[in-house]
Amino acid sequence: MEGLRPFGLLLLPAALIAQDAPPPVSVSAPLPGGGSARVRLQYKLGITVEGADLPRGFLKKGTRPEDWVAFVDLSPDGKRWALIALFPKDTWGRTRVTHVVQYPALESVWLMSALFTGHGQNYDKLMAANPGLPEKLVAGDAWSIPPELLVKELGGEGSGHPDRSQPEDEMDDEARTNAYRALLSFDKDARGAYAAYHMRKGEALYSAVVLRYTDRVDPKDVNDLANAIAARSGIADIRGIQPGTLVKIPLDALADPFQPEGTKALAEEQEVRAEVRRTARVDAGPRLKGVRIVLDAGHGGVDKGAMANGIWESDFVYDITMRVYRLLQEETDASVSSTIRYPDLGFDSRDHIRKSTSDADVLTTPPFAIDGEGPHATSVHLRWVLANDLFDKFEAKKGDPRKTLFISFHADSLHPSARGTMVYVPGATLVPSRFYLAPTRTGGVREARTASMVAFSGRQKLLGEARSRQFAEVLLRALDRADVPVHTDRAIRNVIHRNGGSWIPAVLRYSEASTKVLIETANLTNPGDAKNLRDPDFRQRFAEGVVAAIRAYFGK
After folding, report:
1. Which domain holds residue 244?
2. pTM of this prediction exceeds 0.85
């Protein structure tokens, strides 16, 4: 299956496809002018078409007729032919399609949205247009794809892209957060106090409420809280919520920026925001003279990280990290180090990543192999130990501590409605005053002798979050200019809430860098994000955006 690209999801390597996956469906359909070609529907791969005999008019301009052609690479005529061949029970009107579910084990609302509306993220609108149908597909159910959703190339009026724009989208992080807060009011019912929000047109409970107003991003946490909020709000159908519907958000689920006036959490949030406004940035010039940067690619070796839609985290974020590393080395005077190295690859980038890399070392002395032999947490802790050792040496040579930057690159597996880059900064209240990494947890590396203990004053914690927020803001603007999707609902966060706990990653919690961020480059459970991460051009744009952000942050 080498070279195969599905409809807009990604090709899963055979090892990542569940062994109990339902078998694919393949049909042979006649072609105009004679002959035939097979159309295939596969589990989590979508539609592909046998390409050898396809007429040129069935291929998107510039597409070569490979053995199997992805749905996304077909022309409008080719897409219509493939859909009619695979789903002969569908009814095609001039501007509307009624799709009859034939293969419930292989189909999904997301797939249906991708095929007929041009993007899977229109799934919530498609469900709202079919309120009487269950999300778990049933054979024989007839789904209406109305003109406003049916993509133009299939005869409808849809743009082919999800429409999630709101007035807040053009604001910076603080203004956007304040605008979201202004949409809330506070009240009480028989169950106690809650924050009241009225749904706006085109919004879904998962994204517009849970992802925006709480710190939940994990798929299960988001679903559970969305269902709990719906139940408290008297919403029977979570998919068909009308504009203006009152949603009651429990106060204990609200993120700090949205807590009621007078609360400690809100006061701490406001203190950080004030520090962001009054903290001056440091100018290092366009060549970044005197800047010390440590780059960290998450996971590696036997630890692949998050996996979804045919993508595994480790190799792809390593590739982005190496592209940033190379650009900084070639185009600036900054001193740059990586915490990790893949021995077989060195510090090189790759256009094609077909399998996971099994060997990776944290570049301590001696190198610590991420081979699963030692505790998983050791390789995580050694990254900040190594980085702090490098920063200590920089400062010992009269380097300006304000010109130290730590960036850790990752990719997450969040609720699929979340899309785009998110940036985590060290929440001041979650950074400890002191921490010591015991020798039994250091793997015996030399750097641990001097860099395994950290201490932070209250002022240092506050400045650490403020400067990191400043950089995150600059970074997101640079990525947006580089045509990299950015998470629309609070893309900058200072806490991770998962499985009932709240924390910040160790690489941020114990980092002594003046500025430190963890970048979630993409959400792997979102097919569009996964497709982007697979694309080497996207990874290069991402790296260029990061370097542009570093220059802007240390600019005048």
Report:
1. 167-260
2. no
